[in-house]
């Protein structure tokens, strides 16, 4: 167990370049991804620091790409907030926003 803990700390230090407590707090998803590269289901999967850091950085790139794509979809549909906003539905404008946005794409 000591070996896997040492590998985890060294992987954090390499991936975060001089890791500190704030890295662990604000980037907990990346810390979890690094830990998942080392241990899953109570079994040690990998102890190679190069492999762990490469897989963790690939996972971080994929998360950033996915976030960029989802924000692009949200920007393409500016009326989406009107469709799902409770105030829009209560004021009777929900249907109007929906029809207006659909007509943009069907004309």
What does this structure look like?
This protein has helices spanning 2-16, 21-26, 28-38, 49-76, 80-84, 86-90, 94-106; strands spanning 39-40, 43-44. With 107 residues, the chain is mainly α. The protein has one domain (2-106). The longest helix is centred in the middle third of the chain and has 28 residues, at 49-76. The termini are far apart. The mean pLDDT is 77.
Order of helices and strands: HHHEEHHHH
What is the chains' assembly state? single chain
Q: Total strand count, please?
A: 2
Q: What portion of residues is helical?
A: over 70%
Strand order of the largest sheet: 1-2
Which sheet architecture does the biggest sheet show? 2 strands, antiparallel
Uncertain runs? none
Q: How many separate helices?
A: 7
Structural class comes to mainly alpha
Task: Using brief descriptors, characterize the structure shown.
elongated, mainly alpha, Longin-like_dom_sf, protein transport, AP_complex_ssu, two-stranded antiparallel sheet, 107 residues, membrane, transport
SSE topology sketch:
Elements: H1 2-16, H2 21-26, H3 28-38, E1 39-40, E2 43-44, H4 49-76, H5 80-84, H6 86-90, H7 94-106
Antiparallel strand pairs: 1-2
Give the structure's gist in a few sentences.
It comes from Ceraceosorus bombacis. The chain has helices at 2-16, 21-26, 28-38, 49-76, 80-84, 86-90, 94-106, and strands at 39-40, 43-44.
